[in-house]
Amino acid sequence: MDIKNKSITSRDEDFAQWYTDVCKKAELMDYSSVKGFIIYRPYGYAIWEQIQNYLDKEFKKTGHENVYMPTVIPESLMQKEKDHVEGFAPECLIADIGGGQPIQDKLIIRPTSECLFTEHYAKIINSYRDLPKLYNQWCSVVRWEKTTRPFLRGAEFLWQEGHTMHATEQEARQETLRMLEIYDKCGKDLLAIPFVKGRKTEKEKFAGALETYSIEALMHDGKALQSGTTHYFGDGFAKAFGVQFLDKDGKIKNPHQTSWGVSTRLLGAIIMVHGDDNGLVLPPFVAPIQIAIVPIKMNEPGVLQKARELQKNLESAGFRVKLDDSDKTPGWKFSEYEMKGVPIRIEVGPKDLAANTCMIAKRNDGTKERYSLDNLEETIGKLFKQIHQEMYNAALNNLLNNIHEGHTLEEVEQIVNKGGYAKMMWCGKQSCEDKIKELTNATARCIPFDQISFQDTCPVCGDKSKYLVLFAKAY
Amino acid sequence: MDIKNKSITSRDEDFAQWYTDVCKKAELMDYSSVKGFIIYRPYGYAIWEQIQNYLDKEFKKTGHENVYMPTVIPESLMQKEKDHVEGFAPECLIADIGGGQPIQDKLIIRPTSECLFTEHYAKIINSYRDLPKLYNQWCSVVRWEKTTRPFLRGAEFLWQEGHTMHATEQEARQETLRMLEIYDKCGKDLLAIPFVKGRKTEKEKFAGALETYSIEALMHDGKALQSGTTHYFGDGFAKAFGVQFLDKDGKIKNPHQTSWGVSTRLLGAIIMVHGDDNGLVLPPFVAPIQIAIVPIKMNEPGVLQKARELQKNLESAGFRVKLDDSDKTPGWKFSEYEMKGVPIRIEVGPKDLAANTCMIAKRNDGTKERYSLDNLEETIGKLFKQIHQEMYNAALNNLLNNIHEGHTLEEVEQIVNKGGYAKMMWCGKQSCEDKIKELTNATARCIPFDQISFQDTCPVCGDKSKYLVLFAKAY
Fold first, then answer.
1. Tell me, what's the ipTM?
2. pLDDT over 90 for what percent of chain A?
3. Distinct helix (H) and strand (E) counts, chain B
4. Do residues A194 and A186 make contact, with C-beta atoms less than 8 angstroms apart?
């Protein structure tokens, strides 16, 4: 791409402004009159629908069932698990007037639904035969955040929340890892985003969880984005809510619980991993419009007819196609579909008619090449696989080039201040974690599953090191 | 079905109790700890997913796009259209505490989203080129109802709400009729439910609409159920919210607006139109489980293997199949899948192995017949079409047998008190409509599109009759 799209700020000039520009100009979202609550516009919502389709199939393949729980949680119910309520209390939106009358037990607009699921499970789980229960919910949640950014941090966002109950600790722990793998696979197959998988530190784990795992992505500006989490709760919620079952051995036990979720944050990840100075760049399999057809010299005989024939054939082959036959100029259309990140643009003009060809422009690297119309479906199928792989590799290179070992506290500081992940051998004490945050504002992103020791002592305190941890500034 | 399922009340004994029993025993829903808010359990939610799949495809085929608007509406915004806010004010759930602080402009948990859509449209519509805008949203809405019943009237329900803007009145009016046709087609193709289509009276129309159209279904107990509505708003909201566009003729105009929706009420319709004393009866194309396979003498050699082979083949053919190989008795399994309304049960036992057959039981009429396993996929494909048609016809007969002409006020009273629709030639005055409601509690369901006059005067006041209206008691 040599021509910068004039209507947006460049990435290097002001990354935050570039991000907001893309969100708005690609028509992914708009602001509403309620502070922090955004409108998911058709193009943004359609990307979310693609993610939903992918994940919903994976969830169902692994035996999960969808349910829908109330949108409100009584304050008294939320208070049953102490750590959990403490974690969420500062962010709650609370309703206390219904039909003009005050409501005694105030209602929290759901920030997450552990309490509702666990209460329901207490009613429907009695025997080991009732386990596992593998439920998932697609919905929105509300968190009263002070500073908000589209898709990254909002007063309301769309997500899925899985909540499961298992007879044994082992099975529940396996579930948290199984779901993390599904999220990771979604990155590889659909979003063209490589994630670092790992466990959260005690400081960073979810309110009420015994362990939290996450997938972490690296944005173009060197900041990390937590893109999905899975939690193992042990039997803490189950005890607090009285969930019990009669096991095979005749004993009454509390089941072991997990929850896991990804949200419309993934749209933020797509934008900031792949986007460029001309706007959004979408990986082909998640793109709501995969192919934009732009007729050139549309009024010359046969051009529009050929464009429509192409559209029909490509749609029949299962591609998502937009033919733009509006009276705008080809140049305007090129910018428009570049801004919207459409992976492939097909130009077809008078010269192509006789030659039985079309011009194909790839959005990810801006290259253009003329192809025969024979076997075009096959050509495009191959191109999509190629584009997906190119985008994944570019993101992977960016990730690998921006993970550096920090042997001293100064090195850790330098790395995270420059942008990217600092690998550090950590003693495991929260005081050392706090110290780094205090100095740099970077946080422990995760204790990655791939643990390779490169140093015996913690560079903060000098004590014996226990874990390899990744620190980074994060959204 | 000759054996009544003992665990539920019979329809004729106590229809309301039968309904609640089916909702609970078929595991469609459960009550939550928040009064009026139900839990949509996996089996109930899966039926809703089938309806969503069907309608979402129809909406997209007709050019509609999905969006997601905030879950809350500022009170000040809701007050912009006077009739609308008056209609909804008594049912609002209101939040006024966010992050521990009072909220100045209180937030209404959305009961419907006309205000949010219209405000957004004011920002994005400028020219005739921006029209039409055809948006739809899948979400839940909250209405603080005093008396609630699962799926029929609840504090929260799931629905879709379409909101569209058009350059001309004619086009907007066409949209309300087009969407009503799609709802009607969903009844015919998917739910096996015949609807009466018509226009609502002034008294019964939606708050803020100029005209409301509805589809009305007749339940087994003779009560009507409004199952979907479409509304024409004129430019009332557009004016109140300042939505304007520059038309082709160079003039500034307000666009014309519609909205339309169906909800999880449709689950109530399915239950009460098709259900029987053994529980739910699902039409095949909306059933989450279309075929239940119950192996007979499961431990005899080859039986379970054959059952699994059947499952695999039928799933490959695209059917939704459940093989129950649990250690429960066949009798228990029969009751279970009858209660859940699974359209076809396949029994396969030792005798079938040699004969290459299986027993197929149809849920809708309780008949059983032995079929060859050769071409079983084809056999079942045909059976599903046949079952769907039988169920539709039964519902249509019930509808047609329960519409009667009321020539006098007494006749109208008798008809609606007995159950079913009273056809009446009406003068058009609300006082006459009120009088019937006062006497019988029946309401004007609609002014049906099929208008055939059978009487010159209104039986209530004796004035000249204008419309054929259907009255009925309704949910």
1. 0.96
2. 95
3. 14, 23
4. no
In CATH, what number does B291-383 get?
3.40.50.800
Res. A347: pLDDT tops 70: yes
Place of tokens 């409108």: A39
Structure tokens that stand for B28 in this block: 């469609």
Residue type, A141: V
Alpha helices in B104-144 (DSSP H): 114-124
CA A354 from centroid of its chain's CA atoms: 46
Which of B27, B32, B47, B131 to mutate to test binding with chain A, by most A CBs within 10 Å of its CB? B32
Using alpha carbons, select from A83, A84, A89, A154 the residue that is nearest to residue A117.
A84
The two three-digit tokens of residue A393, written as one number: 């590799």
- Taking an 8 Å cut-off on Cβ atoms, the answer to whether B93 and A98 are in contact is yes
Contact predicate B450/B433, CB 8 Å: no
* Four-way CATH pick for A403-472: 3.40.630.30, 3.60.21.10, 3.30.110.30, 3.20.20.70: 3.30.110.30
Supply the pLDDT for residue A87.
84
Split at pLDDT 50, 70, 90, the class of B5 is low
Superfamily holding A291-389: Anticodon-binding domain (3.40.50.800)
* Residue of A100, A119, A146 with shortest CB distance to B33: A119
How far does CA A209 lie from the centroid of its chain? 21
Considering chain B, what is the average pLDDT of its residues?
Answer: 96
Residues of chain B with CATH 3.40.50.800: 291-383
Q: Name every chain B residue with its beta carbon within 8 A of the beta carbon of A30.
A: 120, 123-124
How far away is chain A from the Cα of B2, in angstroms, using its nearest Cα?
30
For residue B89, the chain A residues in CB contact (below 8 A) are: 100
Q: Which CATH architecture has domain A15-274?
A: 2-Layer Sandwich (3.30)
* Closest residue of chain A to B63, computed from CA coordinates: A42
Residue A163 forms beta bridges with which residues? A135, A259
Phi and psi for A101 in degrees, rounded to 5? -110, 145
**A93 with B72: Cβ contact below 8 A:** yes
Distance of CA B442 to the CA centre of its chain: 21
Residue A4: pLDDT over 80 = no
Chain A touched by B371 (CB under 8 Å): no
Q: Where in chain A is the domain with CATH 3.30.110.30?
A: 403-472
> Pick from A93, A97, A123: which is nearest to B30 by CB?
A123
- Beta bridge partners, A31, equal A38
Q: What is the DSSP string of A123-176?
A: HH--BGGG--EEEEEEEEEE---SS-BTTTB-SEEEEEEEEEEESSHHHHHHHH
CB contact (8 A) between residue B91 and residue A99? yes
Q: What percent of chain B has pLDDT over 70?
A: 99
d(CA B454, CA B451): 10
Residues of A in contact with B40 (CB under 8 A): 67-69
Whether residue B156 lies within 8 A of chain A, CB to CB, comes out as yes
Beta carbons within 8 Å of A276's beta carbon, 6+ residues apart: A1, A11
Q: Largest alpha-carbon pair distance within chain A?
A: 82
Q: How far is CA B449 from CA A259, B181, B195, B259, in A?
A: 51, 12, 12, 19
User: Which of A5-19, A434-448, B76-90, B110-124 comes out lowest in average pLDDT?
Assistant: B76-90
| Residue in this structure with the two tokens 């209507």, named with its chain if needed | A7
Predicted confidence (pLDDT) at residue A425 exceeds the cutoff of 50: yes
Read off the pLDDT band of A1 (50, 70, 90).
Answer: very low
Q: What is the pLDDT of residue B119?
A: 97
**What average pLDDT does this structure show over A409-419?**
97
Q: Do A32 and B69 touch (CB under 8 A)?
A: yes
